[in-house]
């Protein structure tokens, strides 16, 4: 039996090469999977229509999502209908724009003879940050109301919303429906975490689980006397202990403090590492006698 084992024992060089190849295969495979899962994060608007022959287009360019505050920052650009422009491409009448369901609910006024400038706006995106990384966010029904003229001559003009831009780590989709009372179309923006980001989250969680597992194995084997005590390993334990919080904070869209991952994983990882350090100190105490 010993001869059989010795015949098939790998040489150190072959073991090293095999380990390197395995790591490279896993690395390349992870990158390929991440790329396939995260290939698209912007709104599903390949047929984005910015034509404005008969209606004004209100373009919402997504900038940032603040999950804890349920706020979606965006830049709003108004593209006036050609019927509202003069021969020089400027407004032929005063224009006011109102984005209904915006946090900054109010009218933006653009005087005659000018062009509407881009403006920053904040939308309410409702969701539960505590359910990270499976949290989803959705705006209310957004509707653009555009008026031209002044006083009694003021009248509404047709307008629609188009959503552009992308947010890192999020898949953005839009849905358009008919607004009540025949007030045109309304648009809803929905944001879901990208699948590639979820894969990265799983990888970090596996690292968090692996660290205390390794520490406990080493500590238990040492306290039982099966392995010798090595003083430099105490530094290794301390390094792992202080690495947990930075690892937790690099999670994409880091969840708010006290989220379920802190209660179900991070806290127990810290406890396991502290227990491993205590066991290793006990092993030192026994072997020092």
From TrEMBL:
One Pfam family matching this protein: DUF4436
Keywords recorded for this protein, A-Z: Membrane, Transmembrane, Transmembrane helix
Membrane-crossing segments per the record: 12-34, 198-220, 232-251, 263-285
Keyword Transport among record annotations: no
Protein name: Transmembrane protein
